[in-house]
Structure prediction request, 186 residues.
Amino acid sequence: MPRVIFHTATTLNGFLADDEHSLEWLFATPGGEGGDSDFTEFLAGVGVLVQGSSTYDWVVEHEDLVAHPEKWPQYYGDRPTYVFSNRDRRGILGADVRFVRGDVRDSWSEIRDAAGDRDIWIVGGGDLAGQFDDAGLLDEIRVSIAPALLPSGMPLLPRRIGADRLHLESVRQSGQFAQLVYSVRA
Ligand SMILES: NC(=O)c1ccc[n+]([C@@H]2O[C@H](COP(=O)([O-])OP(=O)(O)OC[C@H]3O[C@@H](n4cnc5c(N)ncnc54)[C@H](OP(=O)(O)O)[C@@H]3O)[C@@H](O)[C@H]2O)c1
Prediction:
């Protein structure tokens, strides 16, 4: 059974992006562009990506993927990517992007089967990770906390989940980031 892992960078006060969906705070942090060896190892174990439409739109716009679809594999390889959206959207030429909508349980068997024996990475946003948790499908939360704070923005995981369900598995420093891994109990 693949594990469902929400893996993200976050500000110290729990935001994934600012109100305008900017990740300037992340890129201003040394190492914030990625490439960490832990992340490379994590990605090797991932069979499928899942993301909400704002996260997808950010990558498409930031990398100008409509004009340069060849950049998609630099991010995600050839893994299938499920994008949740209620709107009709364009895919990326040559990328295995699958648009779904509605209750995550309705797409679960398809997502699980596509992952095979590898894990499912919830890329973001926080509410989508929350929807997987609501469905009892979230197994792990991995956060890389940057030395940055924002007054407001896109929330890390807007749910009430306590110590009865979260267990701290590891703590690691990677440059300016604190990397915490929590297992999630149903
Ligand atoms: N710090 C990091 O490492 C990191 C990681 C990931 C994301 N981010 C950023 O964080 C922000 C997250 O944005 P966000 O909070 O708006 O979350 P998001 O999950 O990326 O996008 C939310 C949108 O996805 C669609 N959606 C979500 N669940 C759905 C469902 N069950 N069925 C159909 N559609 C669904 C809806 O839009 P529509 O129906 O209108 O399409 C919803 O408004 C983005 O700016 C992203 O770039 C940062």
Q: What stands out?
A: Residues 8-10, 16-17, 21, 23, 26, 51-55, 58, 84-87, 101-102, 104, 123-128, 131, 154 surround NAP (CB under 6 Å).
